[in-house]
Amino acid sequence: MAEAAAARHYRRGGARRVTASRRLAPRAARPPAPLSWQRAGSGGGGRAEAARRGMEPAGAPPQGCGPAREAEEPPGSPALPPEELQGGQPARQSPGEEVLPAAAGRERGCRGAGPQGPPGRAARGRGRRAPGRRGGEEGVRAARRPRVTVDSSKAKTSLEALKISLRQLRWREFPFGRRLPCDIYWHGVSFHDNNIFSGQVNKFPGMTEMVRKITLSRAVRTMQDLFPLEYNFYPRSWILPEEFPLFVAEVRMMKDSDPSWKPTFIVKPDGGCQGDGIYLIKDPSDIRLTGSIQSRPAVVQEYICKPLLVDKLKFDIRLYVLLKSLEPLEIYIAKDGLSRFCTEPYQEPSLKNLHQVFMHLTNYSLNIHSGNFIHSDNVNTGSKRTFSSILCRLSSRGADVKKLWSDIISLVIKTIIALTPELKVYYQSDIPAGKPGPTCFQILGFDILLMKNLKPMLLEVNANPSMRIEHEQELSPGVFENVPSPVDEEVKVAVIRDTLRLVDPQKKKRKDTQCQTLEHVSEANEELLDAGAAERPESDAPRSPEPGLPSLCLKQVFPKYAKQFNYLRLVDRVAALFIRFLGVKGTTKLGPTGFRTFIRNCKLSNSNFSMASVDILYIDITRRWNSMGIDHKESGMCLQAFVEAFFCLAQKKYKSLPLHEQVASLIDFCEYQLAALDEKRLVCGWGIVERRSAVVPCQTDGLHLAPAAHAPLLNRTAAASKFADCKNHRY
Ligand code: ADP
Predict the structure, then answer these.
(1) pTM higher than 0.70 for the full model?
(2) Is 652 helix (H, G, I), strand (E, B) or coil?
(3) What is the pLDDT, as a whole number, of residue 515?
């Protein structure tokens, strides 16, 4: 019924696009997984500090939806009742009644109400206003402006949503590519889908590798070592097979110290997706029963046993995050996302239910095969809903939704901070300094689970979140057809369209032109210009350069909240040192000579730490990391190995401090030494260019990776006093 209704709503070019195809039978249930742990309050404590610091929620549920607005600004924010939120709609009106169906928006040339309010509203408002002369001129100017060109030939499954977005923006699509360069290249899979030398591409090099389960776990763990409290939003994880003995030992230790502890673990194959190969266990020894762990590396993770339930069902949240730029770091979060529901009522894991995927795994791709899956074109019901509809429910129950959003923003920023150091290494390797190359942006899918106490926990990050706006409907056993999914369309089209608006190359040009025009405005007019749009009569106010479009569904969270998070960016600075010494353009690994040069230039060697010890440190750490079989394409020390060596040096040098202070002190020390060296070389008459070409392949277009190499020299006076004791240091 629901699908039929959705299909009725959805006509594209007069004909519904239906592709019937034969598919494999639904995936079989996971092999029964064995036996048990849950650490008391796993991650349930410490709410993110962001809320205390007063961050605004990103998530503004649809403005047209009464309860959703309340979700953004909850009245009084009473505590969530101890029992699960179950059954029933909020007492207030059903948000679905007010949210315009996507199709209705489309008819007005503005698809998808999205989280920015009913799209029709702006259009209606404009319709009532008599078009002034100025509007007419602007329209003519807009028509004369060359349209932004987008190569969609590699868009794959995001093509439909991209096409709708481009139509709304009136940009020019090149579905089969173009001989001339395009402004934007939209890739479905990775940065390398096309060879691009200019413009912008919607993928960062290395992102797919970075968000694989093992790499993400490693990156987050490095941050957990430095800042354990700040990074307690990621379940404790072990990497298999190499950390299997550690896993066994730690579990035994924790069980010994707390015999009442009955944990459950979830085993996830590296590189897997859509729940593929995932199973639950109760004891580390159960892993051996599966037999394939040597051949398929995996992450084993504490299972979050007490998730928040809605209608007695477990669900997770897919949030869309735009990484607009790596340097400077710019992050946006979509105000709405999707909630994907399990299809069997949840029970805490027990030996009896451990294998029930429809109860424990929220993956859409699995649950769609359950007889209980509900397709709905209402954003508030069914097995896939908008996140804002969940917020409405939580808010109506008195939950502190504002704090929840703060915690989510904090989780997203911290996760990206964990990913950026290695991403920068990939970036300089693929787009080396001085070579023509595109700039990058990327939409990421964050999968988040809410615990019963509303603490958000990160499950994983997707480099290629599904942007499909259709779902499969089983006509008869094994025969499926694609039908439109209004819930997906509402959220995803808004995310793609607004990502494009944010990276619009012409907007930048317009901004530059406006700045130039303003410079020529006479002093007499300056006061008027400074008065601000709000105080001007409507006819005088500058018009939106994107008439007819709703307000952006993406909210900037970084650099907006940079001050609160910059202290976490230590590994970024370590990565800048690493990149400075890489030596050869395009590499991602540091050779022994580069490592020695780093030690020598930063004056880290002395009588207690000879260059022979430096070589041993390099060989030991590099060999271990390379034996983990991550990347055999290049030999040498990868960033993670360098970070480990750096931490080791920091611990030796600043013994009594906590780890993050040791690391921060060593970074300061190294940056100071390098700045002093740069200055000395300048004084000695070495040209910057000559020096850089010798050792520093570090600066790419718009990406400044080695601050010490090209930033103004450190404030010598401050630095000198800070390091007055440096000379006395001994390893
Ligand atoms: P995949 O990439 O295969 O979807 P995920 O890491 O997203 O792998 O896990 C699949 C599903 O398993 C999640 O959507 C979630 O429902 C469940 N899950 C994953 N990790 C945990 C965990 N630590 N605790 C509870 N449930 C989890």
Answers:
(1) yes
(2) helix
(3) 56
Pocket test for ligand 1, best of 220, 268, 314, 450 (most atoms within 8 A of CB): 268
Residues 696-719 as b/e (b if ≥16 CB within 10 A, e otherwise) read bbbbbeebbbbbbbeeeebeeeeb
Q: What is the pLDDT of residues 141-179, one digit of tens each?
A: 666 678 999 999 999 999 999 999 999 999 999 999 999
Nearest alpha carbon to residue 496 among 63, 163, 59: 163
Smallest CA separation from ligand 1 atom 9, residue: 275
**311 Cα to the center of ligand 1, angstroms:** 20
Sheet holding 237-240, edge to edge: 237-240, 298-302, 265-269, 279-281
Q: Tell which atom from ligand 1 comes closest to the C-alpha of 447.
A: 7
What's the gap in Å between 339 CA and the centre of ligand 1?
A: 13
* Cis, peptide link before residue 559, omega less than 30° from 0: yes
CA 186 / ligand 1 centre spacing (Å): 28
Query: CA–CA separation, 169 vs 500, rounded Å?
Result: 9
CB neighbour list of residue 7: distance below 8 Å, 6 or more residues apart: 16, 483, 484
Q: Which residues line ligand 1 (CB under 6 A)?
A: 235, 266, 268, 272-276, 278, 301, 303-304, 316, 361-363, 447, 449, 459-460
CA distance 677 to 214: 38
CA 561 to centroid of ligand 1, rounded, Å: 29
| Distance (Å, whole) CA 628 – CA 641 | 11
Q: Token match 């809410």: residue?
A: 450
Could you give the CA distance from residue 215 to residue 208 in angstroms, rounded to a whole number?
Answer: 10
Strands (E) located in 559-634: none
User: Among 497, 492, 499, 275, which Cα is nearest to 386's?
Assistant: 492
Q: CA–CA separation, 309 vs 129, rounded Å?
A: 47
SS3 709: helix
